[in-house]
Amino acid sequence: MSLPPPPLGAILAGGLSRRMGGSDKALLPLAGRPLVERVIERLRPQCDSVILNANGDSSRFNRMPFPVIPDSIPDHPGPLAGILAALDWSAAHRPDLAWVVSAPADTPFIPHDLVLRLHEACVVTRKPIACAASGSQVHFAVGLWPISMRHDLRQALVNQGVRSIRDWTSHHGLAEASWPVESIDPFFNINTPEDSRRAEILAQQEGLNDGT
């Protein structure tokens, strides 16, 4: 199978972080660097370029050398709104690209073959969308999305009130690409202070430090 064209990478940081006491999870430290930087260094080599979906004051990300785009739908409707924002941004600013790959800003161990495996899943199953899975869990916010579906997604969000990625993808067909969890779940995500402490342990096992 030939290598797929690189997509736009979209890091989703538009949530309210309620279980972290409202702290901005994307900027929490992991092995001495902001969590979002750990996600970037995993995702960026697999993509043409990267953007960050985040709401509120974008100046908190001034040190990040990439566009910060907010949801275009009010009231924090969830990750589907972040995916829509990325699809719309790509259509407007990078019309040469056909795909967006998304990953939440709190998943610092995403695999280095994420994009390749998601594309393969779409090709093999002939389904338009692919999401990652590990163990018995599907990670719906880690997915590959065709930019051509942005109008359908906006219709679902605005006119139908759809908020669940699972619900929206069920109408179109979803492929899954699965990874093992033997040593570390590559889609481990940080929702609580305890998760943050666990991530520090996993980062040590992965050999992460301030400079890597």
Automatic annotation (TrEMBL):
UniProt keyword GTP-binding present: yes
Transmembrane segments: none
Gene Ontology MF terms in the entry: nucleotidyltransferase activity
Main enzyme class: transferase
Binding site for GTP: 12-14, 25, 53, 71, 106
Cofactor annotation: Mg(2+)
Pfam families: NTP_transf_3
EC number: 2.7.7.77
Catalysed conversion reaction: Mo-molybdopterin + GTP + H(+) = Mo-molybdopterin guanine dinucleotide + diphosphate
Subcellular location: Cytoplasm
Its job: Transfers a GMP moiety from GTP to Mo-molybdopterin (Mo-MPT) cofactor (Moco or molybdenum cofactor) to form Mo-molybdopterin guanine dinucleotide (Mo-MGD) cofactor.
Domain notes: The N-terminal domain determines nucleotide recognition and specific binding, while the C-terminal domain determines the specific binding to the target protein.
The protein, known as: Molybdenum cofactor guanylyltransferase
Species: Microvirga terrestris
